């Protein structure tokens, strides 16, 4: 069975794929986000060549459930038909996050990694970033979902709220097991270990790079005991203040909701109408912020 963990970005997909990958009957694609099927290869990169399906098949172990966790595939307008033509019986896992919070988190990540600068984009303010299709396309859930249900039945999807994943991880995995017809399994739910958090994305400083280079040329026999001690204590020296700098951690404010505007509000309504996914809290939150 081929399964696509469609995302969306910054909605817990890294945690979910790491936990699901513990199940003995599940193979997560290697790499987690191969970005072969969709034309969206990340936040900015687009490539409209046809997928190399042979390469795609080679990314999985021979197990009952094979999961491609390329989260940018959800917003790709070409992906639904491409997958339907190849795997009409595929199933889909989508983890949603309140879209303004998702957008702000995505903006934070890109500023921290300086990816926008590498692609010649100006994301210095949220307003400028939101005006870039590369940010808002991943937050228009309703618009994307309408394309998917054109090709697939709703019962081929399981729609999750990232907040529920945090609060009820065991219940979430039980639902997914039933959806994928998997046997019950006792998972390791260490969210902090598997999550793609801002703390893990702290950019390394020049001093940190120097230390890393020096450490890389030290013989393994000498450094292994120290590495083992640090791992046992769950210490990553490259995340210390002198070794790395703090990333951006802005939280959503009324200004962000105003910038996202009526179109995003209407899209949330569309998602609820298209899928029966409960969007009431999102809509109420949106109204409270802009009223």
Topology:
Blueprint: E1 2-7, H1 13-20, E2 26-28, H2 53-57, E3 65-68, H3 79-86, E4 91-96, H4 99-113, H5 115-118, H6 126-130, H7 133-136, H8 141-149, E5 157-161, H9 162-167, H10 169-180, H11 191-194, H12 206-216, H13 220-232, H14 254-275, H15 280-290
Parallel strand pairs: 1-3, 1-4, 2-3, 4-5
Helix pairs in contact: 8-14, 14-15
Brief write-up:
The protein is an alpha/beta fold and 291 residues long. It is 47% helix and 8% strand. The protein contains 15 helices and 5 strands.
Describe, in plain words, how this protein is organized in 3D.
It is a single chain. The protein has 291 residues and is of the alpha/beta class. It folds into two domains: 2-197, Rossmann fold (3-Layer(aba) Sandwich), CATH 3.40.50.300; 204-239. The protein has helices spanning 13-20, 53-57, 79-86, 99-113, 115-118, 126-130, 133-136, 141-149, 162-167, 169-180, 191-194, 206-216, 220-232, 254-275, 280-290; strands at 2-7, 26-28, 65-68, 91-96, 157-161. The chain has a five-stranded parallel β-sheet. β2 (26-28), α2 (53-57) and β3 (65-68) form a beta-alpha-beta unit. The chain is globular and about 65 Å long. The mean pLDDT is 89.
């Amino acid at each position: 069975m081929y399964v696509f963990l469609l995302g969306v970005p910054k909605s817990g997909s890294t945690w979910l794929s790491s936990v699901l990958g513990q199940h003995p009957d599940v193979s997560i694609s290697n790499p987690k986000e191969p970005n072969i099927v969709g034309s969206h290869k990340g936040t900015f990169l687009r490539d409209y060549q046809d997928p190399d399906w042979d390469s795609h098949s080679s990314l999985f172990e021979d197990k009952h459930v094979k999961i491609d966790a390329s989260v940018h595939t959800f917003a790709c307008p070409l992906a639904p038909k491409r997958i339907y033509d190849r795997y009409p019986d595929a199933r889909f896992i989508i983890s949603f996050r309140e879209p303004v919070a998702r957008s702000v988190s995505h903006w934070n990540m890109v500023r921290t990694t300086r990816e926008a600068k590498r692609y010649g984009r100006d994301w210095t303010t949220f307003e400028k970033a939101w005006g870039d299709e590369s940010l808002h396309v991943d937050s228009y859930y309703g618009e994307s979902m309408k394309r998917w249900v054109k090709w697939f039945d709703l019962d081929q999807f399981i729609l999750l709220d990232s907040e529920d994943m945090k609060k009820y991880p065991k219940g979430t995995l039980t639902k997914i097991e039933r959806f994928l017809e998997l046997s019950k399994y006792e998972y390791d739910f260490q969210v902090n270990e598997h999550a793609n958090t801002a703390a893990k994305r702290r950019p390394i400083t020049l001093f940190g790079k120097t230390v890393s280079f020096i450490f890389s040329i030290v013989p393994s026999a000498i450094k292994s005991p120290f590495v083992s001690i640090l791992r046992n204590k769950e210490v990553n020296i490259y995340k210390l203040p002198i070794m790395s700098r703090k990333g951006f951690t802005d939280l959503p404010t009324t200004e962000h909701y105003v910038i996202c505007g009526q179109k995003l509000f209407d899209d949330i309504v569309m998602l609820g109408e298209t899928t029966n996914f409960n969007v009431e809290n999102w809509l109420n939150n949106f109204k409270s912020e802009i009223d």
